[in-house]
Amino acid sequence: MTFVVTENCIKCKYTDCVEVCPVDCFHEGPNFLVIDPEECIDCSLCEPECPINAIYAEEDLPEDQNQYLKLNEELSAIWPVITLQQDPPADADDWKDVTGKLQYLER
Hints:
Elements: E1 3-5, H1 16-20, E2 26-28, E3 33-35, E4 55-57, H2 67-76, H3 92-95
Antiparallel strand pairs: 1-4, 2-3
């Protein structure tokens, strides 16, 4: 099992979760983070650190977010690992409650 970063992270990209990951399984894209399912040890430390509730255990993934399991796997194979917390984008708070953000995902 793995943890999955979902739509809420798109254009918000808070990195609080990265700081607590003991195995460096987070990967960073232009406006989204993903978790490498092969590296994730299911420690659950990241989930409560996310200020916008964008991280779910695979078994708790909402049905409308199922596509993000595959997206995390795909993008973690090509995006670089991120290990240190960074400042979020300046407009992150403007995007935190927006739904239907997949169209804004930058690869």
